[in-house]
From TrEMBL:
Its EC number is 4.2.3.1. Residues 2-80 form the Threonine synthase N-terminal domain. It comes from the Bacteria. GO terms for molecular function: threonine synthase activity. The keyword Lyase applies. It comes from Paenibacillus whitsoniae. Belongs to the threonine synthase family. The lineage of its organism: Bacteria, Bacillati, Bacillota, Bacilli, Bacillales. Its cofactor is pyridoxal 5'-phosphate. Keywords: Lyase, Pyridoxal phosphate. This is Threonine synthase. GO terms for biological process: threonine biosynthetic process. SUPFAM superfamilies: Tryptophan synthase beta subunit-like PLP-dependent enzymes. Residues 99-408 form the Tryptophan synthase beta chain-like PALP domain.
Length: 465
């Protein structure tokens, strides 16, 4: 399997080179050259597989011989052996049409563990196999950082530096990142927003000389390995439902996805392109609704940053969006390059009516207001005795708005409610923390507060790496 850049100026790469490159050297994003197509027969056979077995099949398609199958199996087993639920990503039924796909049973109680446990092990494998140093640099709005750190802490040959916006992540998220005291971990608390952190990272990675000199590797969802790992649970959830519910038969299922950087929902789009019969992909956002406006109006333009109860979705520029543009424009790298240059120069992209129609065939979108998010949490808690975290609540609220009567919708639950207790308590709901989270409050923290300039971050990196 080869990977190419959405901007067309990178020679095709193998899987391992693609994950090492992260952001493509021409500024684009890497995508598979050809998307594997699954037959109905294959889908039927896959229904019987456990989560790790299914992950192994999907990763085999995308790594195609580059990693021996027994090694790949070990990477998969190591990655999903750390999950607290035997099913890895169990599906919970709330009503005949409402299902929740619980993606938060990994070490840091957020869905990012699913991709980052795997990517951490993959980097460990690549470092051993090529005898090379891996320096990971990432930005987080809260969950990625903890997850990435958990994926590589203490691993030989790997160092990791994570930027988070100072005091703009939840207490539990902050503790999960900063209570790790392995010597290969550096937490930088940046004065600014997540978008500032993300921009700094993007610019440092775009400085190819700096990137090569310090062996910089990405863990942000621009890394294609993360997207691939996230396709697995769309298949798994669909199969669980089909098994569990004769009523589904061969019919299609909606997925509602709490969206920030467009990575998770892009994985769903990819699963659909591989042949999974998804009906609607519902794109749920919060008050930072650039993607909702894009789907409704065909204008992609950042608005004013809004603080919300779902901070992992407080994003104005969605880093994976370019991957979708690539497919929307029929894999035309020239068109993508022009659009992205226009975005850089004018701060917005406007697509024509025929493209907007195509977008609306691919996605339905809904932006959830802050109070509506909390209402959904309290409403579902009293009706179903099920506690939603604020991100999942956005997904549920969007599904309630956009699923047509009788359609089955699976909402992706992207975090455990304990991670966002500050918001949940606003509605007077008391929860008991899982013991792993409770224990964090007793531990010392390790982090450095820094200014939000490229140079300040560069100085820290040069000292650390
Ligand atoms: C990262 C994250 C999201 C958004 O996922 P994207 O892939 O960035 O769209 C949603 N919810 C939670 C809890 C997250 O951590």
């Amino acid at each position: 399997m080869e990977y190419i850049s959405t901007r067309g100026k990178v020679a095709p790469l193998g899987f391992i080179d693609a994950i090492l490159m992260g952001l493509a050297n021409d500024g684009g994003l890497l995508v598979p050259k050809v998307i594997p197509q699954l037959s109905a027969d294959t889908l039927k056979q896959w229904q019987k597989l456990s989560y790790p077995e299914l992950a192994l099949e999907i990763f085999s398609l995308y790594t195609e011989g580059e990693i021996p199958r027994d090694e790949l199996k070990k990477l998969v087993d190591d990655s999903y052996g750390t999950f607290r639920d035997a099913e890895v990503t169990p599906v919970k039924k709330l009503s005949d049409t409402t299902y929740v796909l619980e993606l938060f049973h990994g070490p840091t109680f957020a869905f990012k563990d699913i991709a980052l446990q795997f990517l951490g092990n993959l980097y460990g494998y690549v470092s051993r196999r090529t005898n090379s140093i891996i320096h990971i640099l990432g930005a987080t709005s809260g969950d990625t950082g903890a997850s990435a750190i958990e994926g590589v802490r203490g691993k030989e040959g790997i160092r990791i530096c994570i930027l988070h916006p100072h005091q703009k992540v939840s207490k539990v998220q902050e503790l999960q990142m900063t209570t790790v005291n392995d010597a290969n971990v550096l937490n930088l608390s940046v004065e600014g927003t997540f978008d500032d952190c993300q921009r700094i990272i993007k610019e440092l990675f775009a400085d190819v000389a700096f990137k090569e000199r310090y062996h910089l590797r990405a863990i942000n969802s621009i890394n294609i390995a993360r997207i691939l790992a996230q396709t697995v649970y769309y298949f798994y959830a669909y199969f669980q439902l089909a098994k569990d519910n004769a009523a589904i038969g061969d019919s299609r299922v909606n997925f509602s996805v709490p969206t920030g950087n467009f990575g998770d929902i892009f994985a769903g789009y990819l699963a659909q392109k591989m042949g999974l019969p998804i009906n609607k992909l519902i794109l749920a956002t919060n008050e930072n609704n650039i993607l909702e406006r894009f789907v409704k109006e065909g204008v992609y333009q950042p608005g004013e940053f809004r603080g919300t109860y779902s901070p992992s979705m407080d994003i104005q520029v969605a880093s994976n969006f370019e991957r979708y543009l690539f497919y929307l424009y029929g894999e035309d790298t020239e068109a993508v390059t022009t659009l992205m240059a226009q975005f850089k120069a004018e701060g917005r992209i406007v697509i024509p009516a025929d493209k907007l129609k195509a977008v609306q065939a691919d996605f339905a979108a809904y932006g959830v207001q802050n109070e509506e998010c909390l209402d959904t949490i309290s409403g579902y808690y009293s009706k179903y005795n099920y506690l939603l975290d604020p991100h999942t609540a956005c997904g549920i609220a969007a599904a309630d708005q956009l699923a047509t009567l009788g359609e089955i919708t699976v909402t992706l639950s992207t975090a455990h409610p304990a991670k966002f207790d500050e918001s949940i308590r606003l509605r007077g709901i008391q929860q008991t923390y899982p013991e792993q989270i409770q224990a964090l409050f007793e531990k010392p923290q390790f982090q450095k507060v820094v200014g939000g300039s490229n140079d300040a971050i560069k100085d820290e990196l040069v000292n650390f790496f």
